[in-house]
């Protein structure tokens, strides 16, 4: 009985010690965080919140941060990751973000038109491949009538996807040079495929239930794939005017378009070190470095 009581006493003592240790760890962490914040403030460091979609550009923005640090710019980039560009733009408009870097001109202009956002482009970044992927087929000749092909359901990427299908010869558009064609602009469908709009982030998950799908490169990379895995990839030329609407951009609220801190970030982005990281993501830098 005495032994049992002694054991319970030891157990309570251990539990008390664990609670004390846990409390000490929390206090130390809090002190460390406060100390780091004070150091940041003392150094005059400016924190800039950057809105991104997915994680495929993490290394690109790490390279931007490294360039800023190299220049002793006293700018700290804080990344906010979203799964959908629509919500990213909402956050920018609500001043929850300082800048964004995920969308191309066509998507941005459509968002501004639809929602009246006061946004301004402060820098170009890159052109991203927009390819046709399939887990079922190895050749465009394999497609059969009734095969489902998933494409993004937002207006600008839907239009670009239709251009890819036109280029691949699976459909024929009335005017392939139109900026944002819709399914109503399909003149003929010699392959007999069924075009099904879906959320861009989910398209690769639909394969192989769908014969093929077209989606943005950031979602391809996030899924552990490469643009080189594409069944079909239209040729991209950084000098071609036809790709201008699909150049990705850094965007700020219009009232902050001349913000000197943001200009330093764009300058850091437009360096050879960042261009190297962009190319590693199979994208094409769209700035002169």
TrEMBL record:
It is found in: Membrane. It is a lipid-anchor. The keyword rRNA-binding does not apply. Pfam families: Lipoprotein_9 (PF03180). It comes from the Bacteria. Keywords: Lipoprotein, Membrane, Palmitate, Signal. GO terms for cellular component: membrane. InterPro entries: Lipoprotein_NlpA. Belongs to the NlpA lipoprotein family. PANTHER family: D-METHIONINE-BINDING LIPOPROTEIN METQ (PTHR30429), LIPOPROTEIN (PTHR30429:SF3). This is ABC transporter substrate-binding protein. The lineage of its organism: Bacteria, Bacillati, Actinomycetota, Actinomycetes, Bifidobacteriales.
